[in-house]
Amino acid sequence: MDTLTKTQASASTDTFPIKGTDYIEFYVGNAKQSAMYYQAAFGYKLIAYKGPETGSREVVSYVLQQDKIRLVLTAALSPDHEIAKHVALHGDGVKILALWVDDAAHSYQLAMDRGAQSAQEPTVLEDDHGKVKVAGIHTYGETIHTLVERNDYNGAFLPGYEARESVYPVKPVGLKFVDHCVGNVELGGMNKWVKFYQDVLGFKLLITFDDKDISTKYTALMSKVVSNGNGYIKFPINEPAQGLKKSQIEEYLDFYHGAGVQHIAVATDDILFTVDQLRKNGVDFLYVPEVYYETVLDRVGEIDEDLEELKRLNILIDRDDEGYLLQIFTKPVQDRPTVFYEIIQRKGARSFGKGNFKALFEAIEREQELRGTL
User: Fold this and answer.
1) Which of 12, 62, 7 has the alpha carbon at shortest distance from 37?
2) Number of structural domains, the chain?
């Protein structure tokens, strides 16, 4: 399989208009403590809450925001609740990738007509701040896309939530928006879900990576990237490929017990500032040996940043035909080696750091070896 660096933008009409990522919801074991972690470590501000004090007797949710990124951290209040069962099986992880649309009912019906499986029929949520219409469809694993229409709402988040402010003295770290979300699926599942996004949501195939592009001495994987019409939503889909040892995708599937969201890439306009602050806040990142920096400029050419500063912060560099990018990856942000984050700054580049794959995957393998799962 050859690698497609990019495809030409389609001149056809976007058949499933999406305005952007509305929110990402995690199901977690302890929402209050998770919310504190994201405030203290990643600089998110608390903006809304629901729980027993607001009339929610079974579920607690904290809504955090930084610029255009909204995270919802949700936990159950009883062990027999479906959310508690989800966390028991998968650990803390992403349950909902919510998509912002103009007409939730129309989008839902369009998806259903094209073969989607319903997760929630169109429902109107209403309070004193207006109304929001939501609907849901299933995607890989137990992950759901909630379609959110919020044209007639001016509350903090959604009906049922109360506006809240952080008591903790939050210091934003410069995170701007969701660049892309990566899903890990079982062997043989990648093409199925790429076809789902193409057929149901009208996405286009953007890039294909095969096991020659994404491999080390021991492990390999395959990946295809799909994107919606305006390019605001990009979903790489990974599956394991045959290797001498267990790949990072297989490790994820073993610990998560199924397909799910592997990592969330969030954009910044100043990665040096962002990563410096995150490190000071205690965020752990994968380590790439200093030898990486000895030849990186031979590969990527001239850059604006001080290479010594990038080396100090262990930030990776790659270039495509349209510019370059800077990126770094956290270690998993919960006990199980599942979900992690990518911090990315694009200086024209539209790609995903292919030139860094080998260094990145070797770094992941070092962590796997420490865990005894390589």
Assistant:
1) 62
2) 1
The domain that contains 48 carries what CATH number? 3.10.180.10
Q: Does 287 fall in a domain?
A: no
On whether residue 290 sits in a domain, the answer given is: no
Q: For 137-148, how does the pLDDT look when each residue is reduced to its tens digit (9 = 90+)?
A: 999 999 999 999
> Which three-class secondary structure state does DSSP give residue 238?
strand
Q: Which residues of 322-347 are buried (b: 16+ CB within 10 A; e: fewer)?
A: eebbbbbbbebbbebbbbbbbbbbbe
Radius of gyration of the chain (CA): 20
Question: What is the biggest distance separating any 2 CA atoms in the chain, rounded to whole angstroms?
Answer: 60
Residue 343 and residue 264: Cα distance in Å, rounded?
Answer: 9
| Residue 47 domain-assigned (yes or no) | yes
Residue 151 lies in a domain: yes
pTM tops 0.85: yes
Give tens-digit pLDDT for 337-353. 999 999 999 999 998 87
Strand runs (DSSP E) across the chain, as ranges?
20-27, 45-50, 59-66, 69-76, 93-100, 118-127, 130-138, 144-149, 162-163, 175-184, 204-209, 220-227, 234-241, 260-268, 316-320, 323-329, 340-347
**340-347 β-sheet, strand order:** 204-209, 220-227, 234-241, 175-184, 260-268, 340-347, 323-329, 316-320
**Phi and psi for 204 in degrees, rounded to 5?**
-110, 145
| Domain membership of residue 151 as a residue range | 20-163
- Cα end-to-end span (Å), the chain: 26
